[in-house]
Each structure stands twice: as structure tokens, then as C-alpha cells.
Design a protein that fits this description.
Helix content is 52%, strand content 0%. The protein has two helices and no strands. Helix 1 packs antiparallel against helix 2.
Amino acid sequence: MSDPRLDSFEHALEEKLKELKSCQQNKQKTSCSECEKILDCELRKSYVKAVYNSMNKGTSGDFSF
């Protein structure tokens, strides 16, 4: 269940993290850096984008900490 205190960007990040962890588990990896597809992985790219969006809340420019 999602935490109601999280905003939409944080919810999206949680979902991408779950997908990434599932992929790592399915491939029996503990990190994306162990995977031969790290540079071309669309899942990892979407996770990195979700991290960025959660930090800057969808705006370009500075991060909001």
C-alpha cells in the first residue's frame, strides 16, 4: 500500500524502485552495475528519471531538498 504522505513524484519513484528490484531479483543480481545491459536498460533509465523528478518535483532546474 502506498504511503498517503508521499506526493505523486514520490509514488512514481516507489513504483519504479519496485520494478527495478524485481528485475534485479529475476536476473539474480544485487545491483544494476552487475548487469550487462546497464547502459541500454530502459527500466533503469526510467528509474533514474523518476529519481530526478522526485527531487525536483517535475520542474527543471534546481532540486528541492
